[in-house]
Amino acid sequence: MPVYVDVDRCIGCRSCEVACQRVHGGIGHIHVHFVGDFASVPIFCHHCEEASCTIACFSGALYKDGERTAFDVKKCTGCGLCSLACPYGVVWTDKIAHKCDLCEGRAEPACVATCPANALTTDYELASRRERARAARAAAKGGRR
Amino acid sequence: MIKVDDSLCIGCKSCSNVCPSQNIVRTETEKMRSIHWKRCKEECDLCVEFCPARALTLVPFDETVQEPDLSFDLVACKICGSRYASEPMLRRIEAALAADSERDSEGLEWIRVCPTCRRSREAEMASRETVLERCRRGQ
């Protein structure tokens, strides 16, 4: 997943949703979900290695481009198969499909650049360091990991 | 004119989306999706070309033939009950994906769950550790 989420850091401000909509003509590809009063989680495309949306897409509009699950709007017919094939529910279709394109052409995805809580990152090393630190803290306290 | 093989049509939105002359009319209600193919004289085969199920063919114009009409009951989401997809579309996805990927880590048949509930479940799973920790701290 080329954008990593640190759920502990997310403050549920939904700035990422706004940023995504701003750069995608009003249609956003990231949704912040609230789990009771306890946590908020931005949900968006994982860019799966074996992406079921690309398997379901019959016209070749969705395809793997390296790590990215890319989308060619010219080939899309809006049939709706991809949105039903996505296990995370993060491909939308109206007349055409909409999904995270990792802000192709920008230095950094708009959601990552905007997040005021630094909950989103494209840096695998950072995400991995945070995860290890969390595991270490949990182990030190004797809690379950 | 368009001929529809109703044993092949999966009730998707492709042909009604690509038709440039609005000759294919899709009607969606809460429980049903209906597709109506009007008698058409265009020399255009976009719908045929872009049918994922290869259910459409072009045949010579004939006024006596009835206009094809198909209706699909929409399947209810296993979690929230909202109707979200036609049965043949879900079957097609189940056939396309590997059998071992059709259940999630908790054994749920996720293809039978609507996209909105899939997102909510993903949020719950991704935040499980955080929620546990915050509950513990709050005690």
UniProtKB/TrEMBL annotation, chain A:
Pfam families: Fer4_11 (PF13247), Fer4_2 (PF12797). SUPFAM superfamilies: 4Fe-4S ferredoxins. Its main location: other. Residues 1-20, 67-96 form the 4Fe-4S ferredoxin-type domain. The keyword Magnesium does not apply. It comes from the Archaea. Keywords: 4Fe-4S, Iron, Iron-sulfur, Metal-binding, Repeat. GO terms for molecular function: 4 iron, 4 sulfur cluster binding; metal ion binding; oxidoreductase activity. It is found in: Cell envelope. The keyword Iron-sulfur applies. Transmembrane segments: none annotated. This is 4Fe-4S binding domain protein. It comes from Methanothrix harundinacea.
Automatic annotation (TrEMBL), chain B:
One of its GO terms (molecular function) is oxidoreductase activity. The lineage of its organism: Archaea, Methanobacteriati, Methanobacteriota, Stenosarchaea group, Methanomicrobia. InterPro entries: 4Fe4S_Fe-S-bd, 4Fe4S_Fe_S_CS. Transmembrane segments: none annotated. Residues 1-29, 31-61 form the 4Fe-4S ferredoxin-type domain. It comes from Methanothrix harundinacea. This is 4Fe-4S ferredoxin, iron-sulfur binding domain protein. It comes from the Archaea.
